[in-house]
Amino acid sequence: MPVSPTVLLTGASGVVGTALLAELTHCHVIALVHRTPCPGADESVVGDLTGARFALDPAAYARLAARVDVVVHCAAITSFAAGPAATHRLNEAGTREVLRFTEDAGAVLHHVSTAFVARRELTRTRAATGDATARPEDYLDSKRAGEEAVRASGVPAVIVRPSVVIGDSSTGRIAAFQGMHGIVHALLRELLPLVPVPADSRVDFVPQDVVARSIAALIAEGRRDGEAWITAGAAAPSARRVLELTEEVAADLGRPMRIPRTVGPDMVDRLIRPVFISALHPRARRRFDDLLAMTALFAGADAFPNTLGRTPAAVAALTPDAVESAYRASVRHIARARGLVRAAEVAPR
């Protein structure tokens, strides 16, 4: 591996890609973009991740392949509501094109998947979630298929599995709000009278800068195979603790909130849905069912594996205090970005 490798980065404008650009200062980064050049990369190449040879002409493709030492594949549809066709087209078929390029380049692939591929039994199907537009099973099936393609390819590859990615550890800033951010926003506005997950369930999340540093360290360490679980692991807080932390930050920001009740999936199915949810306005019912589909991935789950401190060796495992501090920063950022408090009120005490 060269001292300053050339890296082809997909998904450079996404949550992980944006944070990663700041960590790859020892590399020459070429961003594969769909339309708009990436200002944080050294170069941008316009192409189509799902097209043959990225929809580049043969000569341009060959020139690109001759230069690249490492491919970091962050591009993915992460929305649970995108539908199975679009989700599989990018997350599975797109990964196959990345694998072909990596092989043609004689490069090493760092494939960003998700820790939630491990939670097959916790996904609730559409039949179990009523009016939900969120279908985590589509996303997770596509990520499992992408991983299987990586394993079957024979290409030197490291599979990177972060859990829920939240904002920067210190500032809470993030390129785009995702599912968990919507839940935090709803909690701050007291739109959730209950949360459909048992109180002692672990809620695993990891700051974006930790994910980015981990991928950069894997490249610097010359890793060519294996799996990196970038998670909080045993340091992940319980659902009850997450609610308490949200309440504490809300109080600091001068907008007190009530902690909603936590209930398990069985109570939802036996009592909450038939008695209360069926009577709600369709929009409120859909919001609850989307929440149910997402929180099912946490209900009663065991802790994720965690390889920080080993793969990569250079990034230490998160402590409970570090996880809680990062969550507080994200809550403060969400409150400011959503206009729930004035910017001057958001600084931590």
How would you characterize this protein structure?
By secondary structure, the protein is of the alpha/beta class. It has helices at residues 15-21, 58-67, 84-105, 136-153, 179-188, 208-220, 239-252, 265-276, 282-295, 320-337, and strands at 6-10, 28-33, 43-46, 70-73, 108-112, 157-162, 164-166, 194-195, 205-207, 227-230, 261-262. The strands form 3 sheets. A 7-stranded parallel β-sheet has the order 3-2-1-4-5-6-10, with helices on both faces. A two-stranded parallel sheet has the order 7-9. Helix 4 links the parallel strand 5 and strand 6 (157-162). Helix 7 packs across helix 10 (320-337). The chain starts with 5 loop residues before the first strand and ends in a 12-residue tail after the last helix.
What's the helix and strand layout?
Blueprint: E1 6-10, H1 15-21, E2 28-33, E3 43-46, H2 58-67, E4 70-73, H3 84-105, E5 108-112, H4 136-153, E6 157-162, E7 164-166, H5 179-188, E8 194-195, E9 205-207, H6 208-220, E10 227-230, H7 239-252, E11 261-262, H8 265-276, H9 282-295, H10 320-337
Parallel strand pairs: 1-2, 1-4, 2-3, 4-5, 5-6, 6-10, 7-9, 8-11
